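Q: Given only this backbone (209 positions), what sequence would you predict?
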């Protein structure tokens, strides 16, 4: 299965691309510049150039599934959050529909399902993620939405807590979030479902068994 990773050069996106390869998928890493290509080519991972603010349609040729892991990051203004996290994601969903993609996995954020509850400084970000998630749910695509808590750069533990709705907030290593996302890609029970995700006790390899 050829899986397009949008935001592959990101801290989670890189883990996703590498873990897809380990799990015998065929990842295609969408990156924004040529300098970002060698790190993937060295590992035998195909790349494609694409920018969510421009045309990236050619990235979708021969793609079976999409993982959207892009984001404008904390150092840009609300305008970029809307352009990338919301409109970029919506454009990717539209392209996925157009090209008949079988599965779309969205890396969202904890609290994106209830953006009004977030701290005021984060609310525009949570609303952007929320709108992208809602657009995906209505798209007719087969989807899975993953809403992780605060992402850390700690080494992965292979153990998480995954629930459709969680009342407690928490954090999770980026490596574990990536592994869970790759795992959910192949689980029929995860189809058309949304999950909160933090560190926990359950083995990622046994999720939803
Ligand atoms: N930080 C947290 O605690 C937290 C919690 C929950 C969810 N999230 C979400 O998790 C996602 C990934 O997080 P992360 O830590 O991996 O972020 P990251 O390292 O900043 O990665 C984001 C990626 O998006 C790419 N991107 C930005 N604008 C783009 C554009 N116009 N076209 C194509 N790609 C573009 C970046 O490309 P370049 O590499 O070229 O810059 C980068 O590779 C984000 O959406 C974030 O909102 C974060």
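A: Predicted residues:
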């Amino acid at each position: 299965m050829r899986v397009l990773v949008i935001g592959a050069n990101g801290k989670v996106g890189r883990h996703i691309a590498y873990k897809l390869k380990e799990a015998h998928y065929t990842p295609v890493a969408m990156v924004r510049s040529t300098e970002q290509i060698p790190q993937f080519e060295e590992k035998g991972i195909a790349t494609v150039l694409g920018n969510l603010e421009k045309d990236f349609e050619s990235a979708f040729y021969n793609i079976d599934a999409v993982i959207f892991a892009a984001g404008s990051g904390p150092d840009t203004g609300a305008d970029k959050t809307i352009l990338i996290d919301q409109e970029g994601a919506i454009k990717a969903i539209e392209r996925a529909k157009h090209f008949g993609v079988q599965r779309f996995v969205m890396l969202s954020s904890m609290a994106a399902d209830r953006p009004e509850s977030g701290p005021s400084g984060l609310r525009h970000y949570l609303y952007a993620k929320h709108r992208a998630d809602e657009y995906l749910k209505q798209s007719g695509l087969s989807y899975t939405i993953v809403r992780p808590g605060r992402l850390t750069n700690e080494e992965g533990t292979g153990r998480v807590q995954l629930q459709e709705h969680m009342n407690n907030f928490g954090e999770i290593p980026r490596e574990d979030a990536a592994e869970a996302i790759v795992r959910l890609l192949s689980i029929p029970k995860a189809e058309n479902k949304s999950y909160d995700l933090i560190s926990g006790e359950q083995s990622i390899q046994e999720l939803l068994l």
